[in-house]
Amino acid sequence: MVKNPAPDATRRSEKSRRAIYAAALALVGEIGYPRTTVEGIAARAGVGKQTIYRWWPAKADVLLEAFLDLGEQAARAAGQETPALPDTGDLAADLKAVLRATVDEFLDPRFDAPARALAAEGLVNEELGRRYVARLLEPQLQRYVDRLRAAREAGAVRPDVDPRIALELFVSPLAQRWLQHTGPISHDYTDTLVDYALYGLAPR
Amino acid sequence: MVKNPAPDATRRSEKSRRAIYAAALALVGEIGYPRTTVEGIAARAGVGKQTIYRWWPAKADVLLEAFLDLGEQAARAAGQETPALPDTGDLAADLKAVLRATVDEFLDPRFDAPARALAAEGLVNEELGRRYVARLLEPQLQRYVDRLRAAREAGAVRPDVDPRIALELFVSPLAQRWLQHTGPISHDYTDTLVDYALYGLAPR
């Protein structure tokens, strides 16, 4: 109803939004996606549930926005104002730097617990899964597409390589080890993935 | 109690075991892992729940055994008596053949629904997840380790390549697309993964 909110109202809204995001991420990490409710998020955030429904149609939307915000905050904290991957001209070094930062994120419990709960629900709840991929995962993967495309133009990647498939050679192994605990993750590990992917397993 | 069961008892046991496996896979695919119970499996299989507890300590064990059995049945149906990967001397062709068969399996709803439900639960239930990986996933990955090690000895893979990491370049992308619906899966797709992994993204 308030088309031009007073500065005080904007500050109050911003504070509520932050509290709601924090409550949603904490709850889904602690009790899982299925048991997290809009009522529970509202209670923990100290707001009425109508405040949540005014901004988001359902809990999935709150969580996805909270996650997007978490990613943006992490990027700002790391001094990355732009969402693009670094391009120093050295493709291997750039990919290794980004994947090392991703390893650090996966090893941070504040990220791990809610991300894992949301990913798990996305496997069995197809509607949420598709939103999770479209809103969260795919935009991140497109940054690799852009970097690989630039590398292809610079001659560092073979001209016939499809960047959308190529990125999976180093991104998917890390994602699987993280999600399914199929092996330890470390900077050495992701460095190795980049080397294998760029230079191949067969002798040159 | 019966140390040397009569042939009739053995046949009855085998029939019950099959019925229990089928019931467990059907239920977890239909209602998910959390809502599947030993009681529910027993009722659907037409056996008493004590029959299940005589053989397995918990529902996780029933499901993992049912899955292992499903894999063995699929291998027998495909005429693969041995669990080893083919070794025709052509590494790319052998990997492509196995990954094409895996794509077919992932596209089969009888496999997809229970596998997805179990994988999802494994993401949030760490104990089940570790058993799922140790009993089901890792033995399959070890077949790739063996094949890549043979290829390394034959000079088709660089001597410094770690087979346990290398296999993830083609296995993990397929697993992620299947589990998270991050892209379509097909024989063309897995063929491309093998080519990229073996020959690298950088120009030769």
UniProtKB/TrEMBL annotation, chains A, B:
PROSITE patterns named among the record's database cross-references: HTH_TETR_2
Keyword DNA-binding listed: yes
Name of the protein in its database record: TetR/AcrR family transcriptional regulator
Keywords: DNA-binding, Transcription, Transcription regulation
Pfam family, one: TetR_C_11
All residue ranges annotated as the HTH tetR-type domain in the record: 14-74
InterPro entries in UniProt: Homeodomain-like_sf (IPR009057), HTH-type_TetR-like_transc_reg (IPR050109), HTH_TetR (IPR001647), Tet_transcr_reg_TetR-rel_C_sf (IPR036271), TetR_C (IPR011075)
Domain of life, source organism: Bacteria
Claim: S-adenosyl-L-methionine is one of the keywords in the record: no
Location of the DNA-binding region in this protein: 37-56
